[in-house]
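re: ur question from yesterday

yeah so i grabbed the chain u mentioned. its 125 aa long if i counted rite. heres the sequnce exactly as i have it in my notes:
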Amino acid sequence: MEVVFFKDYMDILFCDMVISFVTLLMYFLPKRKINGIVGYRTFNSMKNQENWDFSQRFYFGKWLLAIPLIILFQILSLTLLQIKDINLIEILSMVLFFTYSIVLMVITEAKLKKLGRANLPNKEY
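ran it thru and got these structure tokens back, copy pasting raw so excuse formatting
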């Protein structure tokens, strides 16, 4: 029974492992220089090195908090809710993933704007 369970849910476990690995990699070994290929890349994050450094740590740090919650949701879906349709769990997990990504992007951009305002010189008129 356990082998069948593991086999049936291997794709979910594999995706969880890949997402976790990439997030850990991006958090602990972020790209030091601004680039358009790897990392959290938006106009504000690529504006200067300070924004880049902050956005990489902030965005991926928050993702480190979310991954256990998504995995917990998947486990609860399988056990307590007893959802048997693996496709439904995959779809719900993707919806959680994309929703959290969008919310986190909005929060990160707001923090970057606040950081940008804090670095502006005080002008006296």
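noticed a couple things. The CA atoms of residues 6 and 13 lie 9 Å apart. also DSSP finds four helices and no strands in the chain.
anyway ttyl
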